[in-house]
Automatic annotation (TrEMBL):
Gene Ontology terms describing biological process: actin filament severing; actin polymerization or depolymerization; barbed-end actin filament capping
Every Gelsolin-like domain range: 101-175
Domain of life: Eukaryota
Recorded family membership: Belongs to the villin/gelsolin family.
Bilayer-crossing regions: none
Organism: Timema tahoe
PANTHER family: VILLIN, VILLIN-LIKE PROTEIN QUAIL
Keywords, ordered alphabetically: Actin capping, Actin-binding, Repeat
Protein name: Gelsolin-like domain-containing protein
Cellular component per GO, a single term: actin cytoskeleton
InterPro entries to which the protein is assigned, alphabetical: ADF-H/Gelsolin-like_dom_sf (IPR029006), Gelsolin-like_dom (IPR007123), Villin/Gelsolin (IPR007122)
Length: 294
């Protein structure tokens, strides 16, 4: 086990090595949240008392407890070599038995989708944000999302960096500070997809689909049907609503029916999500949370 200047760790000795003692060590560059989390872990895993140590005040039995003293990067060296890298927000969703992750550029609070899981990469720490309407499958997967993300990062990231799990509505200041003009009441004003769906189902709406296809022609069901034998007759004997010069087009229209209603409803679901995001942005503009460019 190696100590790092920007972290806090708990060293708990088992019965065989109880002579070393139990320790809670804090690096000079560790954050208050990390130290508090280390205290909570120590109160859970450590049997008995533990000694609190700070970087530079270590005793020999501490180094023995973690396997010996090794060279490690100090906070000063990390600060000198650390580049200023802006945080990155990723949207992850579960579709067709696979997770899909997509980066959101120039992100804001309104990009946090209530139905999904979001990953905020603050370089020295990873936040996993869970929307209140996310599925159980997505929430269960939050444990391996940061691991896969760090392993596939081309920058060869350290897999031991802190990962914090945040629930919608319980965001700490360390998380909201990465978002400009955070509005704690934003989601109170905006409805989720499921809420909108339940509201629509309660009103028993009549779904009207446009009968015009992409190519400008009407649907198959909108045409009057004639037997093929009749269409093969002489042109002057055909009904007036048939184009005598395009009888082959009439045959083509007797093909497969349009896409199913399920496909159309999938598109409507995506559209509702986008409209909800737009509604949130408009509410923020009206309330002054997002300054207008005018």
């Amino acid at each position: 086990m190696a100590a790092r200047s920007r972290s806090a760790l708990v060293a708990a000795s088992d019965r065989r090595f109880q002579r070393f003692g139990n320790f809670l060590w804090s690096g000079k560059g560790s954050t208050g949240d990390e130290r508090e989390m280390a205290k909570k872990i120590a109160s859970t895993v450590v049997r008995g008392d533990y000694e609190v140590l700070y970087e530079g005040q270590e005793k020999s039995n501490f180094w023995e407890a973690i396997g010996g003293k090794e060279e490690y990067t100090t906070n000063k060296e990390q600060t000198e070599h650390r580049d200023v890298i802006p945080p990155r927000l990723f949207h992850s969703s579960y579709t067709t038995d696979a997770f899909r992750v997509e980066e959101i550029v120039n992100f804001s609070q309104s990009d946090l989708v209530q139905e999904d899981i979001m990953l905020l990469d603050a370089r020295h720490v990873i936040y996993i944000w869970s929307g209140k309407a996310s599925s159980k499958i997505e929430r269960d997967a939050t444990t391996f999302i940061p691991i896969q993300y760090l392993r596939t990062d081309p920058a060869e990231r350290d897999e031991d960096i802190p990962v914090f799990f945040v629930k919608q509505g319980f965001e700490p200041n360390t998380f909201t500070g990465f978002f400009k003009n955070w509005n704690s009441t934003l989601w109170n004003e905006c409805k989720s997809y499921d809420e909108l769906r339940r509201e629509l189902e309660g009103k028993n709406p009549v779904l009207e689909l446009n009968t015009v296809l992409v190519d400008g022609e009407r649907r198959f069901d909108d045409f009057v049907k004639y037997p093929v034998e009749m269409l093969r007759e002489e042109a002057d004997t055909l009904p007036d609503d048939i184009d005598k010069t395009r009888r082959e087009g009439t045959y083509r229209r007797l093909g497969p029916s349009p896409p199913s209603l399920a496909v159309a409803l999938d598109g409507i679901k995506i559209l509702i999500k986008k409209l909800r995001t737009l509604e949130c942005l408009l509410n923020q503009l009206e309330s002054g949370v997002i300054p207008s460019e005018n």
